[in-house]
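Archive maintenance. Older records in this collection stored only the sequence; we are now back-filling the structure field for every entry so that each record is complete. The fields below show one back-filled record exactly as it appears after the update. Entries are processed alphabetically, and Cold-shock protein is next in the queue.

ARCHIVE ENTRY
Title: Cold-shock protein
Organism field: Paenibacillus harenae
Length field: 72
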Amino acid sequence: MTTSDDPKPKLKPTKIWKCKNSDCKAWVRDEFAAATEQACPICKGPMLRSMRHLPAVQNKAKPQPRKPKSDF
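Back-filled structure field:
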């Protein structure tokens, strides 16, 4: 049962990588992709860039500056 008070997430155009294989439904957000040219994590086939309207993600991983190793 749903109520009219349920907030719907705001969707925004998001860059994704999706599998070229029509039988495979795998896709990943560009911001979470490991490299510029992707291999499908499920079928290992090629992936292509696309767009999808998705809710915004709040927990983006920010790169942490590396600390120099101490000799102590």
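Update note: Residues 11-54 form one domain. The longest strand covers residues 11-19.
Entry marked complete.
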